[in-house]
Amino acid sequence: MTGTVDRAASAAEREDRALERIDRQRQRRPRLLDDVVTLAHGAGGKSSATLVDAVFLEAFRNAELEQLGDAATLRSASGERMAFSTDSYVVSPRRFPGGSIGHVAVHGTINDLAVSGARPQWLSAAFVIEEGFPIAELREIVADMSDAATAAGVQIVTGDTKVVGRGAADGVYVCTAGVGVIPEDRRLSRDLVQPGDRVLLSGTIGEHGMAVMLARGDLAIDADIASDTAPVHELVEILLAAAPSTRWMRDATRGGVGTVANELVKDRPFALILDEDAIPVAPQVLGACDLLGIDPLYVANEGKFVAVVAAAEAEAAVSALRAHPRGADAAVVGEIVPQPPGIVALRTSFGGSRIVDMLVGDPLPRIC
């Protein structure tokens, strides 16, 4: 009996030491070792985080920027709370099933504001256009942006246009910034997340990344997949009304749900356990991912968000989201647990578990 106890104690000690090593490794500040920028630096994963930390955060460091949120939370001289966000869009091809670069440019900035707790109000739009770009296509992109903004109830109120020589850009790049107003009684922060909270998804994942990938025509895969590009601000308001104690939200764009989950737990005294069977993925998306060897957890979305809600409000939150057409597939997909801190793990369909790390490399470049 003593030998059995000793062996069990030794196994537990080995597990503790292993977890300590993992934790030390994860807590190390990443170092930028690259001499040039690569596509991986724009994928939203480890390389992106390293570039941001070593170059941009190092140069621009301030308390608000260090939050590294989807939008900065600011307070005007009159005391009004606002969110301010900016983004750029280089998606290729510029038109794909379900949308275009114009739709994504508007929806992406609206969504960054919405998951920060703001009600989007105004956008700016800047264009970098290559000499020789067809005016007719530019009109189509601008019309898509106008339609998307009108449907979402926001205005594009300022902008800029630059033209570069032939070969200096790939057609057109679009940059948008946005401002939204945050209700005074609303607060969302990782600091509010605690063990026992539930993690939910507003719908199925992976449609945008797969739609763009297949639209490039490089793959002999015939699948009926359309981008999920859409504004989420209505869904956010529905969620917050049903679950007023909601802790935190993030839209799962570059790097997908897997990267967002890691951003949630980074440097936090808790872990996230995801349930593979609960994560909604459309069969055609899952099939395309399987054929390409890509984990749908890392595929970009443009109309979905991850939220952490209090356990007591999780059922009401999902029910409320499912009542909206864009939230029909909303689901609780995970739980916040105390140990091991800073780790995201996935309970697999086969009864085992695996670590879900932040995205490494860039399996789907120029998705947004």
CATH-defined fold name of the largest domain: Phosphoribosyl-aminoimidazole Synthetase, Chain A, domain 2
Oligomer kind: single chain
Strand content: 15-25%
CATH superfamily of the largest domain: PurM-like C-terminal domain
CATH architectural arrangement of the largest domain: Alpha-Beta Complex
* Gyration radius from CA atoms, angstroms: 21 Å
- Overall pLDDT confidence: 90
Q: What global shape is seen? A: globular
Which segments are poorly predicted (pLDDT under 50) over 5 or more consecutive residues?
Answer: none
Number of helices: 9
Sheet with most strands: strand arrangement: 9-11-8-12-10-13-14
Query: Order of SSEs, N→C?
Result: HHEEEEHEHEEEHHEHEHEHEEE
Classified by CATH, the class of the largest domain is Alpha Beta
| Largest pleated sheet | 7 strands, mixed
Give the helix/strand class: alpha+beta
Q: What gap, in angstroms, lies between the N and C termini?
A: 60 Å
Helix proportion range: 25-40%
Number of strands: 14
Summarize the topology.
Elements (H helix, E strand, L loop, with lengths): L1 H26 L18 H15 L11 E4 L5 E9 L5 E2 L2 E2 H14 L4 E12 L4 H18 L2 E10 L7 E10 L16 E4 L5 H9 L17 H10 L5 E4 L4 H10 L5 E5 L7 H10 L12 E5 L4 H9 L8 E7 L6 E4 L5 E3 L13
Parallel strand pairs: 5-6, 10-13
Antiparallel strand pairs: 1-2, 2-7, 3-4, 5-7, 8-11, 8-12, 9-11, 10-12, 13-14
Helix pairs in contact: 3-4, 6-9
Structural summary, described in words:
The chain folds into two domains: 70-181, 60s Ribosomal Protein L30, Chain: A; 190-355, Phosphoribosyl-aminoimidazole Synthetase, Chain A, domain 2 (Alpha-Beta Complex). It has a seven-stranded mixed β-sheet with strand order 9-11-8-12-10-13-14. Strands 1-2-7-5-6 form a five-stranded mixed β-sheet, covered by helices on one side. It has a two-stranded antiparallel ribbon with strand order 3-4. The mean pLDDT is 90. It has helices at 2-27, 46-60, 101-114, 135-152, 207-215, 233-242, 256-265, 283-292, 314-322; strands at 72-75, 81-89, 95-96, 99-100, 119-130, 155-164, 172-181, 198-201, 248-251, 271-275, 305-309, 331-337, 344-347, 353-355. Helix 6 (233-242) packs antiparallel against helix 9 (314-322). By secondary structure, the protein is α+β, with helices and mostly antiparallel strands.
